[in-house]
Amino acid sequence: MTYDFHQLSPHDLEILVRDLLQAEWNVRLETFKTGRDQGVDFRYGRGAGNLIGQVKHYLRTGIKGLLRDLKKEVPKLNKLNPSSYVLATSVSLSKADKSNIAALFGGKLAVSDIFGQEDLNNLLADHSEIEKKHYKLWLASRGVLDKLLNNEIVTQTEFHVEKVHATICRHVRSDTYQQALDILDTDRVVIISGAPGVGKTTLANMLLYAHLERGWAPVIVRRDILEGAKLFQRGTAQIFHFDDFMGATFLEDGLSATGKNDDRAITDFIEMVRASPTARLILTTREHIFRQGVTLSERLRHAGLDSHKVTLHVGDYSVTQRAQILYNHVYFSNLPTGYKDQLLDSDFYLQIVRHPKFNPRLIEWLSTFNRVRKYPVNEYQSFVLSLLNDPSEVWMHAYEQQISDAARSLLLTLYSLDGRTDGATLKVAFKKLHERRAVHWGFPRRPEDWSNAMSELLNAFIQPSGRQSFKMLDPSVNDLVNSVIRKSPEVAIDMIVGAVDYIQIQRIWQLADREIADLKTAITTAGADVVRAIRRVVLAETKIVRFTTGMGRSSWSAEERLARIIPLANGIRTPEMLHLVKDLISSLQAEWLERAPIINDGAEVLQALRGSSWQMLENPSFEAEVERRLLQEAELGCRSDELREIIRVVDLEGPENAPILARLQRAFRGFGETIETEVRNCNDSDDLQSLEEDLELFARTLGVEVGNMLDRVREAYSRYEERGERRGSQVNNIDSYTLSPASEEGIRDMFASLRSDRPDPVT
């Protein structure tokens, strides 16, 4: 087969040329990036000699564009001064063209070292293994496209050949294609599973397309598996494709379809294909639906479907692969030049590939002109960021139509627990919320709801975290639940009323207070059920707390209870909430008759009272009592963090507050006597830096001398640094999509090619 290489991006072509020359010369070429426009795509060095090579695509502008830009390469080549220079291009070159190109470089480029389109095809003929490896080359070739377009059997199906051809051009080569093809060749059935938007249909279409090129007849199943069984012809090479097969089978009637033996129809058809050497079957499904179907059907559980399954995850893409996905979509898109330039401006494409919500479906969306044309060029970057920041549309249909009520309850529960928790806590919280939702919305509950819901959501909406915990699959699932709550605030009311811990109510209230005004209104007008739930969780003996290494439970202090409830009361402003605040104040005052105040929690109470704007919460005498007790306790002895928290909430300005300043200065002198203990109690350099910042705060606000103390802290800090300890926050906060300088420069080189191979501007 002869290729014009239109189906390859410049990056694809570069990799193909490298592989061909490695095979032809039996050497290993180093892909070499020295930075943008430095004139090197690969090199080979041995002894005193060194060879460098460049690959130029120029599909759109041909020999004219190639000659124009090669003139810019001459000074770069002179500067590099290699012993040999090789140039490869997808442009068809005549002898005269090669001579003209060689002449540009003044003898530094031999005609024999120029590889044009015809030369690359000759190399492919000599190295068929390279052609097979670069499946995109032949799969998306014009020859295969023309063959399929002229195939009457293919054109009579609903398989959109030209659309799939365009999709293959954008595809980034990965191991999943070969893995799925191997399963199909060996077992004759492959199931492609994954979350919405990860590329299931694209992979399925590529497998189908490859078989059509080999002469297999396509059968596109649209309604149910029985449709495929009716079209099955023994002895005829047929490849069946059923997209979203579990959804069509199990979800059409709200999961009641299993009673119609549809699971048996699936397993029978799979066995029929397995037994036929002339049949192949490609099935796609979302992971949550696959798990749901297997959970509901004993027959499917015992059918060995997992051995046929290839699961796609967005997290499987490296940053470089993400960049290639974006690059290919843009290169082969119909986006006008202005939009492409916006992606290149200030390396905006790097923000996209680093984004935690990167998803191939979103990339397809932002690179399709018909979908973005309503946005002016100067608003394109803002549109892209808004799409990435809130991609909930990808998930909403699955949430509303394709998972069970129990699965929705489980997803809402995990969200209410900040999106991450241990399995035991999740199960208890699920049962409470699921009970509330079932009563509220009138759906039935079953003993197996917990296990079934977990099976549905696992690796589809949620994923394991460590040995016994779970978390959201990715940030876009959180966005989904946010969108669900915006659409139906009653969902959040259920989450409050069905809460088992204060952390759940806090999560919903923060969302209402900061983002969703309608939710705040819904909470304040929901009535006594909400206040009863708040009272129940805040009066519990313990609460969930999070640590850097996990989570656990700790006891409430009376101060902490009050500090948490005052902001809620200030927002909800009902008599029931005011009554709860008064009850908590009375309880705290009673405890203070028996014990000293807890300084940090007491400071939060004072801050909450002074930050309240509801007149009914004003209580000057209690505020004064809290302040007096905190100062009294600090004078008896306090830590640096306790002294810092008191300074944060009291007023030290003006002569009227001089007595408070004097009391805090006395508290500081007591603290100063324990500085050695404070230093010893620092576990790492983070703690030492925090102590240093506290001392500097005391010097500014209290007017005290801290020089000797700072010297002691800095001395200890230096010892930590000498031992090579690194700040824990720097380790924990590293973005999982941070690029190394070399990778980032390579991506810049790749995207820089979008500026080349453009026609000269019209003058």
TrEMBL record:
<dbReference type="Pfam" id="PF20720">
    <property type="entry name" value="nSTAND3"/>
</dbReference>
<protein>
    <recommendedName>
        <fullName>Novel STAND NTPase 3 domain-containing protein</fullName>
    </recommendedName>
</protein>
<dbReference type="InterPro" id="IPR049050">
    <property type="entry name" value="nSTAND3"/>
</dbReference>
<feature type="domain" description="Novel STAND NTPase 3">
    <location>
        <begin position="172"/>
        <end position="332"/>
    </location>
</feature>
<dbReference type="InterPro" id="IPR027417">
    <property type="entry name" value="P-loop_NTPase"/>
</dbReference>
